[in-house]
Write a structure and sequence with these properties.
Layout (H helix, E strand, L loop, with lengths): L2 E2 H9 L1 H9 L9 H18 L6 E2 L7 H12 L6 E9 L2 E10 L5 E6 L9 H14 L4 E9 L12 H4 E5 L8 H15 L22 H4 L16 H9 L16 H12 L3 E2 L3 H5 L6 E9 L15 E10 L6 E7 L7 H11 L5 E4 L2 H14 L4 H9 L1 E3 H8 E2 L9 H8 L13 H11 L6 H32 L10 E5 L1
Parallel strand pairs: 1-4, 2-3, 5-6, 9-12, 11-15, 12-13
Antiparallel strand pairs: 3-4, 4-5, 6-7, 8-14, 9-10, 10-11
Helix pairs in contact: 1-2, 1-5, 13-14, 16-18, 17-18
Length: 505
């Protein structure tokens, strides 16, 4: 049996995950469009990294022709005219690896370079590099060093061509960042033994289900829990959950009054036990700070590893869409405004200029998680300094509904989460996101990528545009209706009316 590098890494995370990948791959959750986009992003980073090694030769054989890749690699290794090999493929001891870059350092010596799309080293990279070192050494490659090559978050793109000497950081690994060959060999032996068994290993669910990546078999090992399970309290620490479960306490209804909980967790316990929404005494005062005209605002962005436009750094957010619902005064109809970039050109200026018009002279601008919108506005101020005063006015009027709800509201149906979708569905029984073509931010980013892709057909572009507009509008109408419900719930007059009477695009 042969194990690939990716499967070895999966086995380091969880032996059951490795077993399922090899023997029961059909049980895996389907690859989402967002996951595929992340994989493609890593591929693109790897291609750009190759430009730092001019003259390098790619081993082009795909995963269905790995034996050909091994033979081609062998020929390139002995060819002293080849300065670097990309996707060099080696097999040793039942493990097959493909290296990002194998750089020639002398006639018979090489340096292994692992390329990552992250902006800093991560602990689990040590296993990634360790298994490659073991296989290459076993295959007879003379390694003179190992390096980690990753994105430099401080690099600022000039909008022309990537300067790979500055876009990437190349670090030599310290002793603390490496795993010994003995440890790697032990892991390989353990994995091959597990794979030879008729049944999967007995591994209990834990942090390894989501770290360092979300396991594709998560739902198999983590079935849905009852709505009153103790782990569904907000920000419940794993140690506290373990303590309760060890004491035979699984339901919130069983938690003793003297068990140490945060104020928010205690409110959640009381709400679940009573079956009613908890509303704090300060909610009325917070809601009265809203001023007309009231705008309800939401942004959508992508944050690509490779900066797209001038002045941007790796993982800077590209704002491509906003939605605003606006009410001028009590009883006035709700007006709807939208922006959606429909081409691959830089959307930042039209995004901001149209937004400034939509929220002009607003008294309050309601958002959900003010830190996100405020940070995106700060980005725009950095890129477009001529608009700093307008941006400062918008930031001064932001009103964070998430913070207000966390301090003052808890519904049993929140299930420990304060996400907008969870809160909206709990507070507004008729609100749902079913049937939308886009249902979360990751999907929105992937959909926008297809929308602005020249290869996408006109009919699909129309469908994508409709889905993106519906999704973003759903979020801002949810903000308006939640505020409406909360104001009505505490008996305030002048409740905003969330019915949309007219619109402009």
């Amino acid at each position: 049996m042969r194990v690939s590098k990716s499967k070895f890494i999966a086995g380091v995370q969880c032996l059951k995950r490795l077993y399922f990948q090899v023997h029961r791959p059909e049980m895996a959750a389907g690859s989402s469009e967002a996951t595929e986009a992340i994989m493609e992003q890593g591929h693109q980073v790897g291609l750009v990294a190759q430009k730092a090694f001019p003259g390098g030769v790619l081993v082009a054989a795909d995963h269905e022709h790995l034996d050909d890749a091994v033979r081609t690699t062998r020929e390139l290794v002995v060819n002293a005219e080849v300065p670097a090999i990309f996707e060099a493929t080696f097999e040793y001891g039942g493990v097959l690896v493909r290296t990002d870059v194998l750089e020639r350092r002398s006639r018979a010596g090489y340096r292994l370079i692992e390329v990552k799309s992250a902006t800093s080293p991560k602990p689990h990279y040590a296993y990634d590099i360790g298994i490659q070192k073991r296989v290459l050494s076993g295959a007879g490659v003379n390694l003179e060093g190992t390096r980690l090559m990753y994105l430099n978050r401080e690099y600022v793109f000039d909008g022309q061509e990537y300067d790979v000497s500055r876009l990437f950081t190349i670090d030599e690994l310290t002793r603390e960042q490496t795993i010994s060959d003995a440890q790697i060999s032990s892991r390989v032996d353990q994995q091959l033994h597990v794979l030879g068994q008729p049944t999967p290993p007995d591994v209990k669910p834990g942090k390894q289900c989501i770290e360092p990546v979300l396991c594709e078999f998560y739902e198999h090992c983590n079935p849905d829990l009852p709505s009153d399970h103790v782990s569904l309290l907000p920000r419940m620490r794993t140690e506290n959950v373990d303590d309760l479960l060890a004491s035979g306490i699984m339901s919130v209804h069983q938690i003793p009054d003297d068990f140490l909980l945060t104020a928010t967790q205690r409110r959640a316990v009381d709400a679940v036990k009573s079956g009613k929404m908890w509303i704090g005494p300060e909610l009325t005062g917070e809601l009265t700070t809203l001023r007309f005209p009231i705008c309800f605002m939401d942004f959508e962005t992508i944050f690509p590893a490779l900066p797209r436009f001038a002045g941007m750094r790796p993982y800077d957010h590209v704002p491509f869409q906003w939605s605003v619902h606006r009410q001028e005064r009590t009883g006035a109809p709700m007006m709807r405004y939208d922006f959606l970039a429909e081409s691959a050109s830089d959307p930042r200026i039209p995004f901001l200029e149209s937004l400034c018009q939509a929220v002009k002279a607003a008294g309050s601008i309601v958002v959900y998680n003010q830190g996100f919108e405020a940070s995106r506005l700060d980005d725009l101020a950095r890129w477009l300094p001529e608009h700093r005063s307008e941006i400062a006015e918008i930031k001064a009027r932001l009103w964070d509904l998430l913070a207000v709800i966390r301090r003052n509201v808890y519904h049993p149906a929140f299930g420990g989460s304060f996400s907008l979708k969870r809160v909206a569905v709990a507070i507004l029984p008729d609100m749902n996101y079913d049937g939308l073509g886009v249902t979360d931010g990751n999907q929105a980013g992937a959909a926008w990528g297809r929308l602005v892709d020249a290869a996408t057909g006109a009919e699909e572009k129309t469908q994508l545009k409709r889905a993106l507009l519906q999704y973003c509008r759903q979020d801002t109408i949810a903000l308006a209706r939640i505020v409406e419900a909360l104001r009505g719930g505490v008996g305030l007059t002048g409740v905003p009316t969330a019915t949309v009477k007219s619109e402009t695009a």
